[in-house]
Amino acid sequence: MTRKLDIVIIGLSLSSSWGNGHATTFRSLIRGLAADGHRVLFLERDVPWYANQRDLPDPDFCHLAYYSSVTELSESFGTVIKSADAVIIGSYVPEGVAVIEAVAALSPKLLCFYDIDTPVTLAKLDRGDEEYLTLQQIPVFDAYFSFSGGEVLTRLEKNYGARRAIDLYCSVDAQRYENTGETCEWDLGYLGTYSPDRQPTLEQLLIEPAHALPHLRFVVAGPQYPDTIDWPANVERIEHLPPQGHPSFYSRQRFTLNVTRADMIAAGWSPSVRLFEAAACGTPIISDDWRGLGELFPEGEAICIARSTDDVVDVLTGMNERRRMDMSTTARARVMELHTGNARALHLVSALERLADDPAARGERSQRFQDEDRGERNVAKSA
């Protein structure tokens, strides 16, 4: 490809990784786009809970701008939205439904949705919860890029009306995630914000093993854990760990634990960015089980799958160092080949180019905008 794209992304947050996994996902993807010469404007709602926790206020790989309302978004950035080669709206954007309506009314060349929470989104829609996306809005998008792949893509098209559902897994920034060579401090660690549906698994796969193995060392990093949790004495707590501290954190663990949200287990094919980050740092992974995991990381070869406390105890006490290192090497090689920000950016750009060149897609967009114009005229007449 010779032509470089101008892309506008309207997402939850790029500036702050506090309490969300979106920021690191966007950072890796956009760095990959920038490395290939594409230009990205990221538009973020200016909200106090992220404004007070910004760990990347001035990125050097894209232009970051803030808006305070949907009206300001349209008025201040309408021109650039119209002229961009593609506009991508992310999941969990504040007032997402209104944002989608406002951006669609501007008739961008390509309008796409990037769902970094696909299983959660679909579960919400099934309950009638349309917090940031409505069922009626899904067919408006030229493409529905999904954090989840596999069977989920078929469901999006057949059951939810997506024109084109395309996998766009999260990814890791290969230049920033690598082993630091630091001395190992913990036998097993976990990085993640508190979530009620993940907590029972964390209890089973980390806290109970810590009780059973008092001579080993454990660590849990992440915010919002209730004070009522009774942490064992050999479990260290870190309240918040910004992304720049992740490589060091992973590098100081003998194994790291991956725990998956219930909606993502139910959907399958929904890898967390933590899997790719840990593997890139050469830290062997112990994970709960879900459909599609073995396609990304073959069990016993690139990952340990734990279904009980005893499974974790067996890995921590029974795996020799050579096998541990072989597993980490295999996992890292897979991630470096398939799951870096550069690889994901190439996948995204290829999809956008196909959409732009597809005569059927152009016809759909033309019809969509005609329908929108007709609806606006009817509203004006009735007024």
Automatic annotation (TrEMBL):
Residue span(s) of domain Spore protein YkvP/CgeB glycosyl transferase-like? 204-348
Which InterPro entries does the entry link to?
YkvP/CgeB_Glyco_trans-like (IPR055259)
Outline the segment boundaries, as ranges, of region: Disordered: 359-383
Write the signal peptide boundaries. Answer: none
> SUPFAM superfamilies in the record, alphabetically?
UDP-Glycosyltransferase/glycogen phosphorylase
Q: What is this protein called?
A: Spore maturation protein CgeB
In which organism is this protein found? Answer: Rhizobium rhizoryzae
